[in-house]
Amino acid sequence: MKQSQMDHGNMDHGDMDMCSMNMLFTWNYKHTCVVFKWWHIRTVSQLILSMILIAIISHLYEYLKYYAGKSVAAGGSGNGRSAKTTRASWYGAQVGLSFMLMLVFMTFNGWLMLAVILGAAWGNYSWGNSTVDNGTRSLACH
């Protein structure tokens, strides 16, 4: 049976509004979903807004690293339950946010990758020269 003769139930895929999933690097932004299905990029303006939000989130991650390091240094070597809980909470927040940014990078979308990088650079410029950091932190995801 030829494919032209097969009945596919009138499947029309022309208006499907599905998220694309790229496994190769791309600059195509249409139908890119960022971490969640509801964060769906369809237009250039949505791409630009998403890039700004991602850059801000990446900047805030750098601030979180700075603030967590500062609060640990200010708390000294406190080994009490409260100090340990505070350190663990800040660390958990850092890890969670770093994994979210990793998932943004894993869209393989060059525009979104660029937003993460620019936000991280902006955050490092703003917070990375602290005496707490001393430039000893690596570029690990957490």
UniProtKB/TrEMBL annotation:
<keyword id="KW-0813">Transport</keyword>
<protein>
    <recommendedName>
        <fullName>Copper transport protein</fullName>
    </recommendedName>
</protein>
<keyword id="KW-0406">Ion transport</keyword>
<comment type="similarity">
    <text>Belongs to the copper transporter (Ctr) (TC 1.A.56) family. SLC31A subfamily.</text>
</comment>
<keyword id="KW-0187">Copper transport</keyword>
<feature type="transmembrane region" description="Helical">
    <location>
        <begin position="97"/>
        <end position="122"/>
    </location>
</feature>
<keyword id="KW-0186">Copper</keyword>
<feature type="transmembrane region" description="Helical">
    <location>
        <begin position="44"/>
        <end position="61"/>
    </location>
</feature>
<dbReference type="GO" id="GO:0006878">
    <property type="term" value="P:intracellular copper ion homeostasis"/>
</dbReference>
<dbReference type="Pfam" id="PF04145">
    <property type="entry name" value="Ctr"/>
</dbReference>
<dbReference type="GO" id="GO:0015677">
    <property type="term" value="P:copper ion import"/>
</dbReference>
<dbReference type="GO" id="GO:0000329">
    <property type="term" value="C:fungal-type vacuole membrane"/>
</dbReference>
<dbReference type="GO" id="GO:0005375">
    <property type="term" value="F:copper ion transmembrane transporter activity"/>
</dbReference>
<keyword id="KW-0472">Membrane</keyword>
<keyword id="KW-1133">Transmembrane helix</keyword>
<keyword id="KW-0812">Transmembrane</keyword>
<dbReference type="InterPro" id="IPR007274">
    <property type="entry name" value="Cop_transporter"/>
</dbReference>
